[in-house]
Design goal:
Layout (H helix, E strand, L loop, with lengths): L3 H6 L9 E4 L2 E4 L5 E5 L2 E2 L7
Antiparallel strand pairs: 1-2, 2-3, 3-4
Length: 49
Amino acid sequence: MIDKELLNILACPACKGDVEIKEDKIVCKKCAKKYPIKDGVPIMLIDKD
């Protein structure tokens, strides 16, 4: 699914924390925000209020 090398360089766009894969989503270890993975591509966008 997601290459381990790519996962090692990804960071949460909201808090810059490290991320991991859980339940087919990218999950921030620091703030727990979840980002979907669509067709093998992590969609790591944050909503602007």
